[in-house]
UniProtKB/TrEMBL annotation:
<keyword id="KW-0812">Transmembrane</keyword>
<dbReference type="InterPro" id="IPR050834">
    <property type="entry name" value="Glycosyltransf_2"/>
</dbReference>
<feature type="domain" description="Glycosyltransferase 2-like">
    <location>
        <begin position="11"/>
        <end position="156"/>
    </location>
</feature>
<feature type="transmembrane region" description="Helical">
    <location>
        <begin position="256"/>
        <end position="275"/>
    </location>
</feature>
<keyword id="KW-1133">Transmembrane helix</keyword>
<protein>
    <submittedName>
        <fullName>Glycosyltransferase involved in cell wall bisynthesis</fullName>
    </submittedName>
</protein>
<dbReference type="InterPro" id="IPR001173">
    <property type="entry name" value="Glyco_trans_2-like"/>
</dbReference>
<dbReference type="Pfam" id="PF00535">
    <property type="entry name" value="Glycos_transf_2"/>
</dbReference>
<dbReference type="GO" id="GO:0016740">
    <property type="term" value="F:transferase activity"/>
</dbReference>
<keyword id="KW-0472">Membrane</keyword>
<keyword id="KW-0808">Transferase</keyword>
<dbReference type="InterPro" id="IPR029044">
    <property type="entry name" value="Nucleotide-diphossugar_trans"/>
</dbReference>
Length: 315
């Protein structure tokens, strides 16, 4: 923290070619309640040099409870953008750094709830509980309603971290540029945080909503995203844990997940003539389980990272 400054929290949002989603995100962020005893700022990192993004930020700033800054990171990739956000947050002397995605929205008390969770648990990382809704409001997946302590990892879509993890006089962690377009950069970052002793806690009192467009909700997109995510996870575990522990983890997880997926698929076929809505849910569950199990196995032998995020999904 800078000498003579109140402690501060920076909310970081990285964006790329999703102006409508960013506008909705910033509208909700602009309504956040400001903590009384802390400085606060919103930092938007645009992963292209876009006048449209700057205009969206200017419009949001006019009605925001918290000042919003806009910065450009021209090097394409998730890690470049997230690391640029960390640099800006540290330059602003933030003690707590929050990440959320540009396809997410939050209620007014969300930031206060995240900070409260950090205060009462003392954890260096607080994960928000996430609910998933289709654009338009249809609920896809409910948020976690129970506290989870000492999680093995966290993700960047609604997370608070202590600046000690990234400061030069702390642990100097950064997002690994190897995962720029593959995804999994946030998982790897928080695995590193866990390795240096960070405690990770999920709070059900701070719920963030992720908005899923129809294209992202397609079974083909769902299969590829889950397959790639678990492939990358296996590759990361091989490096972090070594072959033996990784093989054991995959052996414990993948066959059971595959079996559950096939069972859900069979059940969906039986249910379909009688309850199409429930059958569709079972098909989604089957798709996720099968793709995750196959992806986890594929990561044990392949070494090439996927390019899951070379194409932007959203608007």
């Amino acid at each position: 923290m800078g000498e003579g400054l109140l402690s501060g929290v920076a909310v970081c949002i990285c964006t790329y070619k999703r102006p409508e989603m960013l506008a909705a995100c910033l509208k909700s962020v602009g309504r956040l309640q400001r903590p009384d005893d802390m400085r606060s700022v919103v930092i938007v990192i645009d992963n292209e040099d876009s006048e449209q993004t700057r205009e969206i930020v200017r419009a949001a700033n006019a009605n925001s409870n918290i000042p919003i800054e806009c910065h450009t990171e021209k090097q394409r990739g998730l890690c470049f953008a997230r690391n640029a956000a960390l640099s800006q947050a540290l330059e602003w002397h933030a003690d707590q750094i929050v990440f959320m995605d540009d396809d997410q929205t939050v209620p007014p008390d969300w930031l206060i709830a995240m900070l409260h969770a950090q205060k009462v648990t003392g954890a260096m990382v607080i994960q928000s509980s996430i609910e998933f809704r289709k654009v338009g409001g249809t609920l896809i997946k409910v948020a976690q309603r129970q506290w989870q302590h000492d999680l093995p990892q966290a993700y960047s879509g609604g997370v608070l971290l202590a600046s000690e993890l990234v400061r030069p006089d702390g642990y100097s962690l950064r997002f690994d540029e190897r995962f720029n377009l593959s995804g999994g950069e946030d998982r790897w970052f928080f695995l590193q945080a866990k390795a240096v002793g960070a405690k990770i806690v999920l709070t059900p009192e701070a719920i963030i909503t992720e908005h899923v467009i129809d294209q992202k909700d397609k079974l083909s997109v769902l299969f590829k995203r889950r397959f790639d995510a678990y492939r990358v996870a296996s590759l990361q575990d091989l490096e972090m844990l070594g072959p033996r522990e990784t093989y054991l983890r995959v052996a414990r997880f993948a066959p059971l997940a595959f079996y559950k997926g096939i069972s859900s698929l069979i059940l969906s076929g039986i249910i379909l003539p009688f309850n199409r809505r429930y059958a569709r849910k079972k098909i989604r569950k089957a798709t996720s389980a099968i793709s995750e199990s196959v992806g986890a196995f594929s990561g044990l032998w392949g070494r090439r990272l996927p390019n899951s995020y070379s194409t932007t999904i959203g608007r």
